[in-house]
């Protein structure tokens, strides 16, 4: 890979991470305050499926660091919790790129249904990775906020599980629409 290709990938990743961060300023609490949609998952999913898992990890890492610096000041307890809730959780979004080559191949072959299926599996995997990182941070660091008599494990499951499911539903719907109607977003030659 030539240096201008690497630069193009880095710049594209920075743009997608910036877009993801900008979307975090759109109100995203659903019903009860513990369920939060992460609109930034959508541009990072597109980027991960365009460029693959490693660039997706780095774009997610940048997004997580931006979120920590710009929005996370009230929820920083200690170094391990910070790592679990921000850089690691958001970097795991890059798992969405595991099927990047397959999605692009299916789009080129005009097999949209198969491209959608691989996209949805990748989105679910990335969302699950992010959720698990938040879940363990919740168990080990936020569990002290659990109601009296409730285990930290159940508390974290209830608090983080709603967001996981809400983001999964949002992502599955939006990614299906994007792959069906704008497949060119997922190809590398834009």
Automatic annotation (TrEMBL):
<dbReference type="Pfam" id="PF09515">
    <property type="entry name" value="Thia_YuaJ"/>
</dbReference>
<dbReference type="GO" id="GO:0005886">
    <property type="term" value="C:plasma membrane"/>
</dbReference>
<feature type="transmembrane region" description="Helical">
    <location>
        <begin position="52"/>
        <end position="70"/>
    </location>
</feature>
<dbReference type="InterPro" id="IPR012651">
    <property type="entry name" value="Thia_Transptr_ThiT"/>
</dbReference>
<feature type="transmembrane region" description="Helical">
    <location>
        <begin position="153"/>
        <end position="179"/>
    </location>
</feature>
<feature type="transmembrane region" description="Helical">
    <location>
        <begin position="115"/>
        <end position="133"/>
    </location>
</feature>
<protein>
    <submittedName>
        <fullName>Proton-coupled thiamine transporter</fullName>
    </submittedName>
</protein>
<keyword id="KW-0472">Membrane</keyword>
<keyword id="KW-1133">Transmembrane helix</keyword>
<keyword id="KW-0812">Transmembrane</keyword>
<dbReference type="GO" id="GO:0015234">
    <property type="term" value="F:thiamine transmembrane transporter activity"/>
</dbReference>
<feature type="transmembrane region" description="Helical">
    <location>
        <begin position="82"/>
        <end position="103"/>
    </location>
</feature>
């Amino acid at each position: 890979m030539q240096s201008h290709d690497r630069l193009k990938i880095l710049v594209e990743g920075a743009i997608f991470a910036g877009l993801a961060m900008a979307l975090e300023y759109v109100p995203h609490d659903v019903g009860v305050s513990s369920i939060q949609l992460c609109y930034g998952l959508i541009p990072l999913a597109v980027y991960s499926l365009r460029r693959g898992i490693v660039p997706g990890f780095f774009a997610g890492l940048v997004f997580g660091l931006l979120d920590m610096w710009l929005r996370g000041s009230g929820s920083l307890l200690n170094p391990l919790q910070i790592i679990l809730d921000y850089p690691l959780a958001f970097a795991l979004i890059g798992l969405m790129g595991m099927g990047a080559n397959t999605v692009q191949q299916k789009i080129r072959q005009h097999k949209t249904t198969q491209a959608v299926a691989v996209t949805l599996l990748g989105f679910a995997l990335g969302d699950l990775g992010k959720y698990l990182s938040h879940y363990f941070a919740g168990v080990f660091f936020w569990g002290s906020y659990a109601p009296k008599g409730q285990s930290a494990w159940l508390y974290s499951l209830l608090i983080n599980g709603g967001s996981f499911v809400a983001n999964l539903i949002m992502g599955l719907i939006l990614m299906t629409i994007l792959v069906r109607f704008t497949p060119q977003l997922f190809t590398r030659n834009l």
